[in-house]
């Protein structure tokens, strides 16, 4: 009897296993059929389109757009990288490319040198910001796109180039001869002492050399008597995960948890700990962040915060807690695909809860309290998920006026700096240079001569409000109020130049300084009155406040929720 029951149970189990296997196989076959069917539909659609569409189509461009549109429905970071874009992808991950070492930009119908990098071919050949590119090795480039011009400037190293330019303020065209070189952009473009005992390091990307450059900067700063460190990650969009781990490891003891990843495929479930002896596990640290600090920047700042290893100052970070892996495709193309989410030591994921609805600048918007979960740092301080890393000390970034934004957008600050640099041999030191009242008056006159006009967002909103008021028949009873608002909000160049003189002078000085002292000079100037940096210096100099934030006795972080 027992044997019969046991035998029946075995048969039942076998039937269940068979059914589930058949069901799984059916689902798998059905899924494969759906894939095959839809790919066949896509192929036939494209064939008919190519044959019968009224105009000629570019097959490569059309297919790429269709793939981009498909991937955009998933998340913002899963992307197709065509063979022609591989060099740009390599630049993002290694900071390396072969070219002339310069930023280029589109200005009206021309492509110009926007910024030559000090020490590279463009710099050595005497190319300057503002130079208009006319020909490259005899090929006219007028009215070409920046991508087309970039393709001509980049290529195999050790290849000579002859570049014909027109320099604003100079009557004759000029020819510059140079040779392409392998360009290695620095992940740490600047570091130095910002007080007698505080060192500052700016990290602008997480390439494969980032941790090495940070370590070298730390070593030199300590030799200059640095007792505390400011690590600036503002505007840093991220990069390689392993570099974020190694940078955190410079400051935390061996064995500390740094980050873990979890994905649909178990091979992406990994935990990363500090595996090396730290460079300095005790030195006080302040990490500067803003809404442009993303991905690897958030791993570093989040881990430093969760381990109570340093203080975070600035704004809520971007909120990108997704890990991407590159997969090789045919014809040298790649798929960068989101494979996992990452979690920092407290257990929180900093991925924005809704990455499809962000602020205009891409940062995390308002999050309902009911959606936020509380976690705790190593010392027991409260930290929260929901999107991004919240700073311990919140400092809002300064916002520019509509006038300043439009002066930049229309290249008027840039063009005036070009003319200024081409008519001056030298200027004062980057930390000392400033725009005089006389120079500001010259600039004001210059933009008026350019017939500059601009709009403001306030007037656009007011116009929309007027339209709604008229449609709803409220306008007639509010005419006086609308007239008063119109008078106040309508752009007035003379009034706004006076009102925003300080910030416009600052922008102009910064642009001029970069013409004479290049990137380092521009950074030095911008740090002079940097509110976030000044706050970091203040806290690092006050041991009680620094330690009070880390042990939770000064509970500022909770106020930023």
UniProtKB/TrEMBL annotation:
SUPFAM superfamilies: ClpP/crotonase (SSF52096), PDZ domain-like (SSF50156)
GO terms under cellular component: outer membrane-bounded periplasmic space
Matches recorded under InterPro entries: ClpP/crotonase-like_dom_sf, PDZ, PDZ_6, PDZ_sf, Peptidase_S41A, Tail-specific_protease
Gene Ontology MF annotations: endopeptidase activity; serine-type peptidase activity
Residue span(s) of domain PDZ: 88-154
SMART domains hit by this protein: PDZ, TSPc
Pfam family, one: PDZ_6
One biological process term in Gene Ontology: signal transduction
Alphabetical UniProt keywords: Hydrolase, Protease, Serine protease
Family per similarity comment: Belongs to the peptidase S41A family.
PANTHER family registered for this protein in UniProt: CARBOXY-TERMINAL PROCESSING PROTEASE CTPA, TAIL-SPECIFIC PROTEASE
Signal peptide residue numbers: none
The name this protein goes by in its record: Peptidase S41
